[in-house]
Amino acid sequence: MASVSVRLQGHGLWRRWLRHVWLLSLCCHLLPAQAALPTDERRALVVALCTQPAAYRATLDRVVQAVVGSSAEDAAWGQALLKGLADVALVCREQGGPVFKRADGHVDAATLQAVSEAVDELPMVPSLVLARLLKTSQAEAELFSPDVGTRRAAAQRISQAYAQINEPLVRQALAKASDPEVVATLELALAKRQLASDQAPDRIDAIRALTKAPSEATRTLLSNHQEANPAMDGLEHEALVQALKSIDRALKLGQIGSIAFSGLSYAGVLLITALGLSIVFGLLGVINLAHGEFIMLGAYATFVVEKWLQAYAPGWFDAYVFLAIPFAFVVCGLIGIVLEMTVIRHLYKRPLETLLATWAVSIALIKLVQIVFGSQNVEFITPSFLQGGVQVSAGFFITWNRVFAIALALAIFGATYGLIRHTRFGLLIRATTQRRDTARALGLPAPTIDRLAFGLGSGLAGLAGVVLTQIASVNPSMGTSFVVDAFMVVVLGGAGSLVGTAVSSLMLGEVNQLIEPFYGAVAAKVAVLLLIVLIIQRRPQGLFALKTRS
Amino acid sequence: MTASTALYINGLSVRFGGFAAITDLTLEIRYGETRALIGPNGAGKTTLMDVITGKTRPVAGEVFLDRTLDLAALGEADIARGGVGRKFQKPSVFEALPVVQNLELAVRRGLGWSDMVRSRLSLAQRQRIDEVTTTIGLQDQRQRLAGELSHGQKQWLEIGMLLVADPKVLLLDEPVAGMTEAETERTVELIASLRSPQRAIVVVEHDMEFVEHVADLVSVLHEGRLLGEGSMQAVRANPKVIQVYLGR
Amino acid sequence: MRTPIPLFAQAGSMGLALPLLLLAVLLPLANSLFAAGHPLHLSLFVVNLIGQVLCFALLALALDFVWGLLGVLSLGHGIFFGIGGYVMGFYLLNAAYADTQVLPDFMQFMGWTSFPAALQPFASLPVALLLGLLMAVIVGGVVGLAAFRSRINGVYFSIITQALTYALMLLLFNNDLGLGGNNGLTGFTLLGGFELARESTQVGLASLSALVLAGVFFLLRWLAQSGFGQAMVAVRDDEARLRFLGYRTDRIKLAAWCLSCAVAALAGMLYVPQVGIINPGIVSPMLSVEIAVWVAIGGRGTLTGAVLGAAIISCLKFWLSAEIPSLWPFVLAGITLLITVALRNGLWGGWQQWRTARAAA
Q1: Which one of A62, A254, A433, C355 is least enclosed by Cβ atoms within 10 Å?
Q2: What are residue B233's phi and psi, to 5 degrees?
Q3: Residue A543: inside a domain, yes or no?
Q4: For chain A, which chains pass the contact test of at least 3 CB pairs under 8 Å?
């Protein structure tokens, strides 16, 4: 960064200095202004804002100088003026000078002293031009704020409004800036502006500077520049071509990263929705078409927890997701056990009938939830610690709620893996899955294991619902779209295999995210199906089959 | 005059993952012969039948019918049409269909779709069905649903289904498993009556008495290899066989 | 293994075909001979409903052929119903355009100024019918080939058909495709020269539906009782065994499957002119499962059961959705659960079994 600043200041130093002088002559004052502003000057400035649209720019620049100057009194006055304009509180009186309207009366615009007489006129509404310039001026003023957060935000706005900024002032801020983010943003802003310079070396500098901050915006800027100037000399053209190549590379990397991340996030969703299904299908051979509805119930359980906390314990609100986890697990697990006892139990060894019976349960559940909660989407308030995100590189933005969803999915998977692999209960499930008859001959209570495993599977589906509240829309029919995908995962990964579920979730998640943005959702689904058919041909039991040939 | 070769198996090896089910097996079965395959469980007897009928593919070796038809390269249906009939351990008849329809299905061998759709059978086919129905003793049960037959009757029906297709090679996998003494006797008679100079019969069985009554030659398999071959007495006296069966 | 029941009570009889033929004749009679208000009069509304129910029965018949007899549970027959329906829709759009010279709304929204060339081949009714059946057979053929060759069976096959249904539904919902998007195709006026709005046309369509159902029922039943039907049942009960008897079972499955897809498409083609609209909702995964429920409730594997099951449930649905709409899912769920858990052979199948058991006793 330092080298670029030196380049900006060192290269063509003479020309730069001459331009400064020229600008200064426009501004009519030397910068920076150190002396305090006399009252009539202040008044003149305000009047200029009221009556001279052509001089808005110059006037505002002067005001901003006052704000950032060393005189605290002037700074306060300048701030008041800017704020007054923004708040639509400046009254341009015909006589007596302009005043600000305050809640408790009016004050003189120059002295900020209370005005005794009554004021009838209404405040001036800033024109669009003035409003825009005003925003830029405010940003320029905030560049000098003591708070780094304000400075960063102001720098961003400066960068966006680069065409209108007061360049010398921004350079002054840049010289004083210490925060690397602010420095980078301001340099970018100046570089953008410099692209329109009439000096080729300046433009080349600007091009090179813009390469350091690759984004769609800078790319568009550069390609527009290229189109607008077809007759460009060799050096500049060369620099431009290089810059575009470099930016394109960065954007491509960003796109890859973005796809990888969203693939990961989708894979996480697939993983948790398919986990319970895999266990149940592997153990019981049961296709539970109501699995999607357990996911939905988990989401609605989260809603209930959210609302309850909002009403009775608002201090705990941000933790609603964590509190919903055990709640949803237990509720869905219990409902699953009831379902097993009443319906599934009687359909042992009849998978096709089980399919239809669970479908019947699913339509009843959907209708029930529709009646109780309504059929519209349910809105969830993202907890404060999950809001926002971070920009990793050009075009690649990570949102915290997705990261959280991935993390939660992994945690749930880890816990399930631990349960299945390292506990007695898990051992019972694995044994009964692999060789049911032997397990029963050894005295293992298969019916009880079935029941509890089904409850586990349903509970896991509920947990999936909890996670989904943060990243997907929640409504009574949300389950149906997840069931088909979850089954694809289980078919591919191998029923009953946890590792298989994880691997196939990852595969299918990435395949989906690779294809969907370019070819649409339908092509993505068909591609997934083709992949599965191809793999099933070789390995009919899935990638990580638990049951060997028998 | 030696009869011609029906089944020619040379250097056969079959693996399932890391497990070697059959290793370097060489066997030759002639027409007119009834061969018994015996050996402890897991010796590879059923696997061998799987390979012959096309259910499993070998990793090495040759399997030929008549020395000309490469069975390792054909699918199950084609092998069956080529004249190889297999009876499974579990009686596999079509329980939802009556006895006579089971036989009708079998006699067509999946050929002649227009005949199938029009339910037409040639005179020869009808006669064959009548013959076989009498041979297996189910002439009074023609319209009975196969699912309602007794265990023994189902086994016979299955043999009957193979017979109507007049197979060159008949593979019988434990044909008397689960049968009563009387049923076993009847089955012995049945299989003995199936002997023909144009047919080779291979029987897998554990019941040694049955084997003695039915088989000309016995091949002993153990852990996927051929342990010994010969008449029942010779095999019984073979020290290697004794070792395997008595254990050490 | 469930206890086997005889396929059909009386082999060789016409079964349901006869009553259906009667229905085909009665419908127009009841509508035109008797004036409104007469107890034997059937209003247009009722006749139209019966026509729709007959189309659903045809669809259920297609599924039972391939599920009850062949043992292949397709949860995606809505795909073929939809193909037939949409092709009929293309024809009707052509006919309406030729009649009114006005482009359908959705085409106007897309900014089109002339009738798209892609839909013009469907301008002739016989060609459209043929194309519809052909497309259903081709799509079904591809799916069947891929699945049966890969030995994908049972629940795996069912789930894959559900996934395909979902994908097709997404495709049809796409508003940019030029197939009506989520609004579907509407604005039909003429069918083969007849005005769709006329009562006589609608009654004729309902009558035609009964005729077609009778004919298809007769054909499928005849097939089921033939050697081919025996082979289908054998595939259902022990496919491996049949292969070892020399049968190329994938070809048998493919042939039966393609026939079933064609019949489903036929049902769709009869359905669309009677409801006047086709939209992607018809290809929803849920509807495709419902077809299987109709068959299960009637009694799968009996063909008659499928027709009855579809008729009973559709009539119930029409009636209850009008009276107490929010209760219908619970009623359907309850009936389905009852049938799958308790009455395994369905209503008709159960009755047949009871009769056989009583006759044997």
Answers
A1: C355
A2: -65, -45
A3: no
A4: C
